[in-house]
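Every protein is a chain of amino acids, and every chain bends into a shape of its own. Below is the pair of lines this work produces for a single protein:
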Amino acid sequence: MRKLLFVLLCTAGCSRLGDVGQVPEFTPPETSNEVSAMANPGLPETLENRRDFDQASLWSGGRQSLLGDRRAETRGDILTVVIEIDDKAEISNSSQRARSGSESLGIPSLFGIPQRIDERLPEGASLADAVSASSASTSSGNGSVRRNEKLTLRVAATVVNELSNGVLQIQGSQEVRVNFEIRELIVTGYVRPQDISRQNEITYDKIASARISYGGRGQISDMQQPRWGQQITDIILPF
């Protein structure tokens, strides 16, 4: 068992030695869903679906014309996602409770019996105050939550799928490498074509099931994370 544990530790350590002095690699875009959607767009529009006056008009309604609508609408199209998050939340509550009580029981006189019993009791003992009890409890609590998040980003996303009801599934990713650190931005979700502006942009609050990830990987991010052994002991140890 000890040998197996030693081999596992050595393997985990050696697998990271290859990253020493090397910049983190970009994620290959060729294998992403975005490139697949652009390389395999939807079926082209047939002539039967177009209106006759569009064929005879000097001003074509196509997307490449001067007055054409260039908003994303089919698989493989690209649009801009505008992320401007400025959220602030503050919650505060307090509670207080107090309780006290006392009980006493004594037999000062009962046909003279207590006096006779007192003579047989140890010195200082008496039935005059047979039982006396008191209790008191108090509790108080305070809690507060304060959050302030601000994020302003723009990222190009690709329509990777078009649902049967016309809703577009989008996915966008962006990676920027500075020295030995990569900043990653990932956006996924579902949008309605009518929510896309004439500038071919859509804000994050109009994306259904939005998943926005903003983080990084590299030497700085690696140093901010505890070692995997410490994470395991934090889970296993009960104290």
About this structure: Strands lie at 78-105, 131-162, 168-178, 181-191, 201-203, 208-218. Residues 165 and 192 are 10 Å apart (CA to CA).
